[in-house]
């Protein structure tokens, strides 16, 4: 039996802003795909489906401003850029995004360039913030009037092991029920979708790293045109950027650290201490406009499908940020899921949906391996059972020395950094 095609008439777009329609009492809505979460996974999936005439309803627990206020990833793989083009949201990305053909590894105070374009036959990455990707997708959704609910409370998924799954939630005290053919769980690591799957149906894998990243965003010119990943005996540091006047920097910190303990001055002097002398001298400092600490973890939940419920992005897996794979993995999941749903609605074939979990997980594990490897190579693990203390540091130095001298090693690094094909 093919999925029933039920449409919302007229399209609902309820939003926190006053110029949008107000919901009536106790709403019952039919849609083809209910998408939980308006992060990059949920919004991109909604856009790819809408362009094929498949109606998706997005249900997000936070406000649009809250979603846009989260400073996260900054580096897009070429495949992710291609997907954003397909979704019709790449104009600003092409105007304002910064193509990068390489990055620097800083080892023992000396910088070595990894020439991405050279080792991957011309591939590159694009620096464009997750916030901007989300904003472009949100603006498109709003302009097109595609149905979305923000500020949804008590979101719950039901009956996803049946042909008629449902989502219930309330907005400003009004109860809503969305009946769908499929539910896409795009609600991040702490979301409700994975948590609703019976524990015996899930296998999870997890590694928590014994340090965090302290990140600062500042309206200052970036220290370098290209990213610098630094392995230093004081700990890892990363110099990244969002635009020619917006810098994003990170230093490895203790999990016990609190953001309030880190003054801007303390951050800048720690960052400077972990860079090579020319970069340290060139660093322009200024007031932080965002400062936060993120813990690092590797996590994978298998499988990624339960009946009519499909998990995508951080709802199914987390990688440590070193190498910027989190957002890009969310994009490849969404590619496979949109293809599966398009095949289902267009040709009546369930093949793509049946293969969804396996296809995603093959790529997820490869990106998890790369992120784990790059994290292990770049951070100080002194008091951790994960490394061999001082010996671990010397082994890292040896591997880094090998990496920057071996064409084979640089090719492997570059191939993974620009993103494996999907
Ligand atoms: P999310 O972006 O988490 O979106 C999920 C959405 O679902 C959210 O809007 C949330 O509010 C909503 N939601 C949650 N629960 C519910 C519910 N019950 N009902 C309805 N909606 C719900 N990646 C990198 O590549 N580089 C980085 O530098 C980087 N930094 C990061 C820093 C932090 C602090 C975090 C948390 C992640 C970072 N990541 C980074 C990872 C990257 O941001 C994620 O991989 C990416 O956001 C995944 O997108 P997503 O849409 O799957 O999940
Ligand atoms: C950024 C984050 C990363 O984890 C990374 O590897 C590169 C860039 C960033 O936030 O800009």
Q: Care to describe what's here?
A:
35% of the residues lie in helices and 27% in strands. With 422 residues, the protein is of the alpha/beta class. The strands form 4 sheets. The protein has an 8-stranded mixed sheet with strand order 7-6-15-16-17-14-18-21, sandwiched between helices. Strands 9-3-2-13-20-19 form a 6-stranded mixed sheet. A 4-stranded mixed sheet has the order 1-12-11-10. α10 (326-347) runs antiparallel to α11 (351-378). It is globular, with a radius of gyration of 22 Å. The two termini are 29 Å apart. Residues 1-23 have low confidence and may be disordered.
Order of strands across the main sheet: 7-6-15-16-17-14-18-21
Indicate the low-confidence ranges by residue numbers.
1-23
Helix tally? 13
Query: How does the major sheet shape up?
Result: 8 strands, mixed
Measured as a percent range, the helix fraction is 25-40%
Ligand roster: flavin-adenine dinucleotide, 3,4-dihydroxybenzoic acid
| Secondary-structure class | alpha/beta
- Please report which band the strand proportion falls in: under 5%, 5-15%, 15-25%, 25-35%, 35-45% or over 45%: 25-35%
Whole-angstrom Rg: 22 Å
Shape: globular
- Number-wise, the strands total 21
Give the N-to-C terminal Cα separation. 29 Å
Which whole number gives the mean pLDDT?
92
Quick structural gist:
By secondary structure, this protein is of the alpha/beta class. The chain has helices spanning about 40-50, 65-70, 80-85, 90-95, 115-120, 130-145, 190-195, 265-275, 275-280, 325-345, 350-380, 390-405, 405-420; strands at about 25-30, 35, 55-60, 75, 100, 100-105, 110-115, 125, 150, 155-160, 165-170, 175-180, 180-185, 205-220, 230, 235-245, 245-255, 290-300, 305, 310, 315-320.
